[in-house]
Amino acid sequence: MEGTGLIRSLSVWGLRQLDMTEVPITNAEHEHAGQAAFEAFYLQTSRTLHGYLCRISRDPASADEILQEAYIRIINAPATDAAQRKAYLYTTATNILRDRWRKQKREREWAEQTHATESVHQEFNLPIDMSAVFDQLTPQERAVLWLAHVEELSHREIGAILNVKEKSVKVVVFRAREKAKELLEKAGFRGSHE
Questions:
Q1: CA–CA distances in Å: residue 176 to residues 100, 136, 148, 165, 169
Q2: Beta strand ranges found along 36-112 (DSSP E)
Q3: Which 8-state DSSP code applies to residue 147?
Q4: How far is C-alpha 94 from the geometric centre of its chain's CA atoms?
Q5: Mind listing the pLDDT tens digit of every residue in the chain (194 residues)?
Q6: Cβ-contact 58, 139 below 8 angstroms
Q7: Do 137 and 179 contact (CB within 8 A), yes or no?
Q8: How far is the C-alpha of 173 from the C-alpha of 183, rounded, in Å?
């Protein structure tokens, strides 16, 4: 059967729950339902995941590649409910990004050993003060601020995505907020509540 692999892959979107003995469903109908469910999930999550990856990686091109790879991996993942699926997606994307950073670090070290240097600067079309703030935050600080304030995830969800304990997330979020606040104040930005 030609569509069997796709049908098996798309079963992650909840299609395993269909009882094939009660209502006869053709492979084409099953495949179409899985594609529709995946498309809905993609439309719901892709924009915010891309924004998260852009801010964390500072490279929109890498963010595009990581986004695609994360969705490919989630298609082949075991079936989960919607909340777990989103956490799995963010965890997968974060891990892919970390793997890229490790690879880039190894390549940088190799280039330094051979006396080759190269620098790349990315512009994110953020106001200068915000770009400077984001540049001074660590990747973990950028990640937790993004997940907490843009994605509005709970500390438990952030911990699952970043593979950190929930109590540690609370501390990192607090410290990242304080650091960002201090950096913004140094840049001359004053909050509206003052």
A1: 23, 11, 11, 16, 10
A2: none
A3: I
A4: 5
A5: 333 343 344 444 444 333 334 444 455 655 666 788 888 888 988 899 999 999 888 889 989 999 999 998 888 877 777 778 888 899 999 999 988 888 888 777 766 665 443 344 444 555 555 766 777 888 888 888 888 888 888 999 999 888 889 899 999 999 999 998 888 888 777 665 54
A6: no
A7: yes
A8: 15
In sequence order, which residues have a C-beta less than 8 Å from that of residue 179 and are 6 or more positions away? 136, 137, 141
Query: Selecting from 2.60.40.3080, 3.90.76.10, 1.10.10.10, 1.10.1200.120, what CATH number does the domain 124-194 have?
Result: 1.10.10.10
pTM (whole model) above 0.70: no
The two tokens of residue 73 are 């991996």
Contact status, residue 34 vs residue 121, Cβ threshold 8 Å: no
| Residue 142, both tokens | 């950028």
What is d(CA 56, CA 161) in angstroms, rounded to the nearest whole number? 14
Cα→Cα distances 188→24, 85, 129, 132, Å: 66, 41, 8, 12
> What residue type is 16 in one-letter code?
R
